Amino acid sequence: MTETPNLPPAKLSPADIAQLRPETRLVQGGILRSPFGETAEALYLTQGYVYESAEQAEARFKGEDPGFIYTRYSNPTAAMFETRLALLEGAEVARGTASGMAAVTASLLCQLRSGDHVVAARALFGSCRYVIEELLPRFGIATTLVDGTDLAAWKAAVRPETRVLFLESPTNPTLELVDIAAVAEISKAAGACLIVDNVFATPMLQSPLALGADVVVYSATKHIDGQGRCLAGVVLCSEKFLNDHLQTFLRQTGPSISPFNAWVMLKGLETLPLRVERSQASAALLADRMAELPGITRVIYPYRADHKQYELAIRQMRGGGTLVTFEVEGGKAGAFRFLNGLKLARISNNLGDAKSLVTHPATTTHQRFSPEARAEMGIFDGMVRLSVGLEHVDDLTDDITRALKAV
Fold this sequence. Notes:
By secondary structure, this protein is α/β, with parallel strands linked by helices. The chain is 40% helix and 14% strand. The protein has helices spanning 14-18, 22-28, 54-62, 76-89, 100-109, 126-138, 151-157, 180-189, 202-205, 239-253, 259-290, 310-316, 331-341, 371-377, 393-404, and strands at residues 93-97, 117-121, 142-146, 162-168, 193-197, 215-219, 233-237, 296-300, 323-328, 346-347, 357-359, 383-387.
């Protein structure tokens, strides 16, 4: 095999790509082509890298020579994924991690120390609540949980030692919204860092950085992969946050994304707009149809006019999202009969997949909380969370209608 010559410079510069529309950025952004000129991005499945000289190795480690050192620090495939998502999000930089929870934990711990204080919205994914309520206090970091919809509560909770405000919107699983722009103002006034978990909205439907957030985190396992294959997470932030806090933490503690998983996520980004658009259209239609079905007592969807924060959803999001939460008659027993009666939508605690997935939050994602704590978060025994996939919406409607007969 004869090695091909070096390719000419790319026709589109990073500045050119940044001016393109999101769908184009997700296909063209961040590409690093080898001398072979491949069309699909290369998978650099390697642990380490070699240097032309001892002097170059020294310069790499001192940060004087650009290049890769060790895949725990960075990797060409991971760099393509990070660059592409940063272009979409409008972030200065991004860093991939091994999972969404690795991204959440790294974004917090990289900047906190004993004596600091964190304010977080009460309605969070169960693992995020664990990090806030149980993990951080072990290291002398105080935390306060507030009603995320109550701006006065956010203001009242801030202390001189408050360093971070943390929230997710829409929330898991109740699809409650937090006014990101308003909380960002509170955070900036306090000199704190606002971290937003944007998993449910996806970068296609909500832009927390544009609303004033400092850091955005994702479980790329969800919509970004979108096909139930690999785990990954990502932190998006400023160059300053990366240099002051995040890069050293990631380098020394090692929650690295694998090159293979980064490659899967990179390819997933190419179809993200199409998948989210299709799933969201089906979710919106299903929400309206389910509201009319016997056996369902309540439907929660941000872009329905009966959502208690509908106006905020219209102002803050570019669509209602791919998830619908609803309550069925009969509490836990009724919910279980409904779930077991489904044939097309399958029971799984994942979301953002091409396949429609349902879960019972009270006994899965939020099962470790007491009934009182779940009620405080708005999670009740008859609640079901539906992640709408790419199936035909009429088939999903038929499946739900049939399963409700068991309730």
